[in-house]
Amino acid sequence: MLSSPMSGGASSGAVSVAAVVVTHEPDIDALLLTLQETSRQVSRTVVVDNGSQCQVPLMRRLEPLSGVALIRLGENRGIAAALNIGVRRLATEELGHTWVLTLDQDTLLHPGAITSLLGSLDLLDATTRNECGVVGLRHKSVEMSHGPWRWAERDNRVRDLGNGFRERRLLITSGNLVRREVAEAIPFEEPLFMDQVDYAFCAAVRSRGWRVLELTDVLMDHQIGQVFEVRRRVRRYETGQRLYYITRNSTLLMLRRQLPLSVYLAQLLSWCWAYGAVNGPSAIPREMTIVLAGLGDGILRRLGQREYWFLAEPRKQQAKPQA
Fold it and tell me: Whole-model pTM?
């Protein structure tokens, strides 16, 4: 049973951290860098692979890493299911950990990131610290948002707390420390499959009386979406498959009043614009089909993994490498 946030808790001076990393068809060399740095900062790392074709070489490459365990799933069960499996595995190992760090396969912690985060958390007053169910790292500096994201950012921010922290309604999953009792009592929502899983989790955490905090220092490297150069402008891009899940799941969360309308509209406008800009006018009919399918399935609550023919990419794109 999940205790009340006000029932108290240990300060970060007496904590330990274990990690769950979810993978699917990873770049193994890049993943090794992620895991090597993560294992320096946490007591245990569980990698949950979602049905990748490269599981055998992945197992061989990860075997020498100390403190890293690999769980191989026979099929892609989605990010939420993989996170839940990783959390349950850590619970059975009785590690005595206080926090669970959730990471994507392409997230690289900066050296000392977890120590820095926990040290900063200790500077907060005891009540705020004990009410914190999730605390997140940032992958880029805080900056003024533009267009619809300016409205969305206003609605996502709850309050500034000082000492580099602010309270949020929503955080992305990668780079989050989740209090162990929260992680084990509030599961990630598996029917969503992928996308908006993090937002649904934050909403559930807040509904149980816990607070969601974020440290504004940049303590990790992480990329949201793919990067393409279109007419000399760099654009963040999500595939048709991801656009469908973003549309479907965000529609569901918005209807459940777990996602602010401003965030909902900002996501759809920005990702739809990027899809059209990268694929060109000829892809607009396909894009409209994707969005309409997502809207319909979200409204009708048709969840789980979907394999519509129009989710395939209209043509192969060449991503712009990151600096």
Answer: 0.90
